[in-house]
Amino acid sequence: MKQRSQLFKDLYELLRQLAxxxxxxxxxxxxxxxxxxxxxxxxxxxxxxxxxDQHFLATASNVMRQILVDRARTRLTKKRDLQTQAIFLDIxxxxxxxxxxIEVLLLDELLERLSKFDSRAAQVTEMRIFLxxxxxxxxxxxxxxxxxxxxDWALAKAWLASxxxxxxxxx
Length: 171
Description:
The protein is mostly helical. The chain has one domain (4-164). It is 70% helix and 4% strand. It has a two-stranded antiparallel ribbon with strand order 1-2. Helix 1 crosses helix 3 (53-78), helix 3 packs across helix 6 and helix 3 crosses helix 7. The termini are far apart. The relative contact order is 0.12.
């Protein structure tokens, strides 16, 4: 089992690359370095050790999610124009809000609900969207097959799409 500081040192550049991608796709202000350092501070307060690099990355994806959600909430409380201040995350690499993006606060709420229904699908979604890990990297981290990850992602994506649609109301 590696020390936290050694894991961070070994994976620092990878985390910065992943954070840079996430921030570029969200339109979020701030630097990748700042996001990674905030994540490191949170990871240092985590009481448990990490089994390996993949376990560390899985936990880092959760921490980055928390940080981005906290930032989105802060922005919403500071600004009155909620529509222009919302932070969006892509689901399939979309560069701007559109049919394949979701607002980060809504995504956080949906992931909480999905985790009660299918915790692994929620974790796959988190690792894919918040860290940008590939199916193979997620499979390694979760110790399952790539095919299982693809199934979990398809389920999660369909569930997110159905749950994020506004409910039609009868008049």
